[in-house]
Design goal:
With about 230 residues, this protein is α/β, with parallel strands linked by helices. The chain is about 35% helix and about 20% strand. The chain is built from eight helices and nine strands. A four-stranded mixed beta sheet has the order 4-7-8-9. A three-stranded mixed beta sheet has the order 2-1-3.
């Protein structure tokens, strides 16, 4: 069993947020933060709301707008009624995860709830693979956390999504896809035996797959749908 209240808090640095990280938040997000984090994020959001004045001040003293551009690009507000997640905020690293999370909010009518999984812990799936070095016979064993869990609206169905860069079909990802499929196949069999009525579907997506994925979900074709990356990994 995996319970939301057992999920470890997710942390990210100020440096990451100013560079490649993106933060989705709503009007009530700040209320749940400890004082230090609340003050830091409140300051960022206040500067975001007064961006033109901050920009003028930075440039007046010889700075560049690129130093504060993260306020506009990396802090992304969402209405509270669209924030269908038990998490108070959604933080994503790098462009592929951002594009998927952005698409989730744009298609939020399809889901009752969703979460962005932390990088470690919570729901870990074991996998094994041989490193890419030539002539290597050593089998490496590790765990990975799928990036997103989405509950379909009015269905006892969970869509589990791992996001990767374009055409990232390295042996490590092939092993994650292979062992992840086996994991959810076994889980669905156990759920069926116990007549629980819940089902899990597992996907590997690259950014180019994202529009078609949501179209497949909207049209009810998600059961057997495969992304271009999944075809490569198979």
């Amino acid at each position: 069993h995996v319970f939301m209240d057992e999920m470890s808090p997710q942390y990210f640095s100020e440096h990451a947020l100013k560079n490649h990280g993106r933060l989705f938040y709503h009007s009530g997000s700040l209320e749940s933060l400890p004082q230090e984090e609340n003050l830091l994020l409140s300051g960022f959001l206040e500067d975001k709301n007064n961006y033109d004045q901050i920009k003028a001040s930075v440039e007046k003293y010889g700075g560049r707008e690129t130093e504060i551009k993260f306020l506009q690009d990396n802090l992304i507000p969402q209405s509270e009624d669209m924030f269908k997640s038990p998490l108070n905020m959604i933080y994503v690293s790098y462009e592929p995860e951002y594009r998927f999370a952005f698409s989730v909010f744009n298609n939020i009518d399809l889901f009752d709830s969703f979460i962005k999984s932390p990088d470690k812990g919570f729901y870990s799936i074991p996998y094994s693979y041989k490193p890419e070095q030539r002539a290597s016979t050593h089998v490496h064993r590790d765990n990975f956390n799928p990036d997103f869990f989405l509950k379909l609206k009015s269905h006892n169905t969970i869509l589990v999504v791992e996001i990767k860069a374009e055409a990232d079909s390295r042996p490590k990802n092939k092993a994650k896809f292979r062992d992840g499929k086996e994991h959810f196949l076994a889980l669905n069999q156990k759920l069926e035996e116990k007549d629980k009525g819940w089902r899990y579907f597992f996907y590997f997506l690259s950014p180019e797959d994202i529009p078609e994925f949501f179209q497949a979900v909207r049209e009810g074709r998600y059961h057997n749908w495969k992304s271009s990356l999944m075809h490569e990994l198979a």
